[in-house]
Amino acid sequence: MDNNNVLTSTQIVIEEALRKLGYGDDMIDLLKEPMRMLTVRIPVRMDDGKTRVFLGFRAQHNDAVGPTKGGVRFHPDVNELEVKALSIWMSLKCGIANLPYGGGKGGVICDPRKMSFRELERLSRGYVRAISQIVGPNKDIPAPDVMTNAQIMAWMMDEYSRIREFDSPGFITGKPLVLGGSLGRESATAKGVAIMIDEAMAKKGIPVAGSRVVIQGFGNAGSFLAKFMHDAGAKVVAISDVHGALYNEQGLDIEHLMDRRDSFGTVTNLFQNTISNDELLTLDCDVLVPAAIENQITASNADRIRAKIIVEAANGPTTLDATRIVTDKGILLIPDVLASAGGVIVSYFEWVQNNQGYYWSEAEVDAKLREMMVRGFNSVYELHALKKVDMRLAAYMVGVRKMAEAVRLRGWV
Ligand SMILES: NC(=O)C1=CN([C@@H]2O[C@H](COP(=O)(O)OP(=O)(O)OC[C@H]3O[C@@H](n4cnc5c(N)ncnc54)[C@H](O)[C@@H]3O)[C@@H](O)[C@H]2O)C=CC1
Ligand SMILES: O=C(O)CCC(=O)C(=O)O
């Protein structure tokens, strides 16, 4: 049976990783769940004058290494188990990148596509008021994720600054540049993924120029990635959004699609000859990048995947059963906790710049990002080869070991 419960499958791999590293039941018991999970009800005055109550979450996995860090998702399907799993994945990303953070994640059940600008502002501010006791620049630092963006970060930062009565740019990352954002943060997740594609293709001996790339999702991660791959000479033959997918074996006109997409990453609704997301996932290509949501590559389609490399820009797009199937087929899988770490790495740079009040050039940000991503890739790939474990397990082992060691040295276990 395919296990699509993202928390349970995360716990299975965390346990395996900790056992392989030599830790026992007590460490597993501590790290398999977030140390804190806050559920909040947020009253929001809607434009029609009525009050609607939204349910929100903030999970903090573990702060033995440092403050917790991770995005906030606004989505109708977000739920407690997903937010818990996402907070654990954030710990693993921070561990692989060697950032001084543990993982955190937040979510609010809502559909921003059906809300006005002012309703979204009131919800964003209400969420910050509701979680303000457990977050802060040295406690837990939010950031953007699915259907949240720099404008929402600006409102959240402003609300937190009002509560604390001083300007607090380091409370949140992914802010607009004029409010202390970092150059390069907006496209950082995609840039990190592009760096991982370079490394993976080098391992497989496939040149980037002329390669065929398929990307599921055309939001922040997917659209910038399509542009970077196109600029690098690859042929982006298919992209998709929640409504469907576009395919052209000669390569799509990425500039045109970037120009036409809306702020939620939707564009395929403007075209007639679309294919389905399932058809997109099984297209013949060199690199397949799921960059949308969880549980897209599952036991029911994994044996039909024809890509040579899968690079997970999305969090949790491949189930555990599917991981086994694609690995057995010889597909090189670059797991989410490694592949999509570019976002949190540049968020870390943003926080460092906020703390020191001195801002870097984009070239500096890019060079540091590349160095950290490549170092992370090498650690995971080498462990995978040395211990003969799949890339996901190797990534979990690299990602959790610093945190486990910090927990042990602090004497918590
Ligand atoms: N924004 C960031 O900095 C980071 C994002 N990620 C992950 O990358 C993924 C995408 O995030 P963003 O690009 O920020 O989100 P976004 O909200 O900007 O875009 C999401 C895209 O996925 C599409 N989509 C949604 N549901 C879909 C479905 N059922 N089937 C196909 N496509 C669907 C949307 O239409 C849109 O094109 C998520 O898993 C997110 O957690 C990971 C690291 C950092
Ligand atoms: O930029 C950050 O702090 C977190 C990004 C994020 O939520 C993620 O990597 O899933």
From TrEMBL:
<dbReference type="Pfam" id="PF02812">
    <property type="entry name" value="ELFV_dehydrog_N"/>
</dbReference>
<dbReference type="InterPro" id="IPR033524">
    <property type="entry name" value="Glu/Leu/Phe/Val_DH_AS"/>
</dbReference>
<feature type="binding site">
    <location>
        <position position="69"/>
    </location>
    <ligand>
        <name>substrate</name>
    </ligand>
</feature>
<comment type="similarity">
    <text>Belongs to the Glu/Leu/Phe/Val dehydrogenases family.</text>
</comment>
<dbReference type="InterPro" id="IPR046346">
    <property type="entry name" value="Aminoacid_DH-like_N_sf"/>
</dbReference>
<dbReference type="InterPro" id="IPR014362">
    <property type="entry name" value="Glu_DH"/>
</dbReference>
<dbReference type="Pfam" id="PF00208">
    <property type="entry name" value="ELFV_dehydrog"/>
</dbReference>
<protein>
    <recommendedName>
        <fullName>Glutamate dehydrogenase</fullName>
    </recommendedName>
</protein>
<feature type="binding site">
    <location>
        <position position="347"/>
    </location>
    <ligand>
        <name>substrate</name>
    </ligand>
</feature>
<dbReference type="GO" id="GO:0004352">
    <property type="term" value="F:glutamate dehydrogenase (NAD+) activity"/>
</dbReference>
<dbReference type="InterPro" id="IPR033922">
    <property type="entry name" value="NAD_bind_Glu_DH"/>
</dbReference>
<dbReference type="InterPro" id="IPR006096">
    <property type="entry name" value="Glu/Leu/Phe/Val/Trp_DH_C"/>
</dbReference>
<feature type="site" description="Important for catalysis">
    <location>
        <position position="145"/>
    </location>
</feature>
<feature type="active site" description="Proton donor">
    <location>
        <position position="105"/>
    </location>
</feature>
<keyword id="KW-0547">Nucleotide-binding</keyword>
<dbReference type="InterPro" id="IPR036291">
    <property type="entry name" value="NAD(P)-bd_dom_sf"/>
</dbReference>
<dbReference type="GO" id="GO:0000166">
    <property type="term" value="F:nucleotide binding"/>
</dbReference>
<feature type="binding site">
    <location>
        <position position="220"/>
    </location>
    <ligand>
        <name>NAD(+)</name>
    </ligand>
</feature>
<dbReference type="InterPro" id="IPR006097">
    <property type="entry name" value="Glu/Leu/Phe/Val/Trp_DH_dimer"/>
</dbReference>
<keyword id="KW-0520">NAD</keyword>
<keyword id="KW-0560">Oxidoreductase</keyword>
<feature type="binding site">
    <location>
        <position position="93"/>
    </location>
    <ligand>
        <name>substrate</name>
    </ligand>
</feature>
<dbReference type="InterPro" id="IPR006095">
    <property type="entry name" value="Glu/Leu/Phe/Val/Trp_DH"/>
</dbReference>
<feature type="domain" description="Glutamate/phenylalanine/leucine/valine/L-tryptophan dehydrogenase C-terminal">
    <location>
        <begin position="182"/>
        <end position="411"/>
    </location>
</feature>
<dbReference type="GO" id="GO:0006538">
    <property type="term" value="P:L-glutamate catabolic process"/>
</dbReference>
<feature type="binding site">
    <location>
        <position position="189"/>
    </location>
    <ligand>
        <name>NAD(+)</name>
    </ligand>
</feature>
